[in-house]
TrEMBL record:
GO biological process: regulation of mRNA processing; spliceosomal complex assembly
Stated name of the protein: non-specific serine/threonine protein kinase
Start-end of Low complexity biased regions: 26-37, 257-268
Alphabetized UniProt keyword annotations: ATP-binding, Kinase, Nucleotide-binding, Serine/threonine-protein kinase, Transferase
Enzyme class: transferase
GO molecular function, one term: protein serine/threonine kinase activity
Catalytic activity entry: L-threonyl-[protein] + ATP = O-phospho-L-threonyl-[protein] + ADP + H(+); L-seryl-[protein] + ATP = O-phospho-L-seryl-[protein] + ADP + H(+)
Residue ranges annotated for the Protein kinase domain, each copy included: 94-348
Region feature (Disordered): 1-54, 253-272
Binding residue positions for ATP: 123
PANTHER family: PROTEIN KINASE DOMAIN-CONTAINING PROTEIN-RELATED
EC number annotated for this UniProt entry: 2.7.11.1
Source organism per UniProt: Puccinia graminis f. sp. tritici
Amino acid sequence: MAPPSPLNLPTDSPTAPTHEPSGIKPAPATAAQQQPAASPPEPASPAESASPPDTLESLMIQLGVITGGQLMNDQEDAGYHPAKIGERFHDDRYQVVRKLGEGQFSMVWLAHDQQLDRHVALKIFKSSKFFTDSAEAEIKLLERVSRANPAHPGYGHVAGLLDHFKHQGPNGSHVCLVFEPLGQSLGALIRRHKKKIPEPIVRKIGQQVLLALDYLHRECGIIHIDMKPDNVLIVVEDVEGVIRWDLEHKPKGGYDSKSSIPLSTSSSDPFHLQGQSDHDPIAVKIIDFGSATWVADRRVEGVTTRPYRSPELMLDAPWDQRIDIWSTGCMVSYVPTYQREVQGQIRS
């Protein structure tokens, strides 16, 4: 059986469409449909393999992934939990299946929810007080996002928190967050497809991101602060089917208990997600609330990624939630602007 397939965009088309495809509607961002595709995923080319990760490794919730899945060597300050394939968390509810990647704050694992028979992204924070405090602050923001107003049209375009708990391990107590698995990031899509994303798709993504920001700003009272392509993820239709197909056809080895390096619990393994036509519906969700803050309590510095930084932040002037709108404008205009330049039709 072939896996269900998410969005795929052309990489060799000389021009991008300049009109909206007829009949296209955003896919519901909160429901998955069980529809298998016609063929299995194709292996990535050497060029694609050398580029930053663009599959479930890079698209997991709120993860600053180190490219290639390399672990940090600072053992004294590591504080990671040395999870094993098959290890269970939270009263045996979540069983680790595969490692997805790691960042400065945490490791992310693909896990199976034994209670609901589905796969989830399990984010395990490092155990020091700094990372614990950061995780607990993030939980408060995410809980507000999950409950504020489900009827708002932007609600389904923000990745919500499914569960959270603490886990005691050999390196201390770790805050663990559970999220839904999503598709590749917009940033990964840009890198994979040489930035040639059709403008109707970009407009649709921009519309959904703005709905999500309206929800965050008006209903939740939250400023995201770090809007960029890597923090916008594609919703995969039947992501559970994609994961199960990959696990069945590409099983990976588990934890080497004889290893002298306790953090090398498993090789990071991305899931290669192939796609469908650029005329298919597309839905996205905003992720990563690690830098976010409350509208009414801006005690953090507004440190956005430089290419998307607003004039207020550059000039060290007072700022508010409008910095998210500026960043989104930069992000959305980036792709079509690049297409025009490479086609020799630069427009002001």
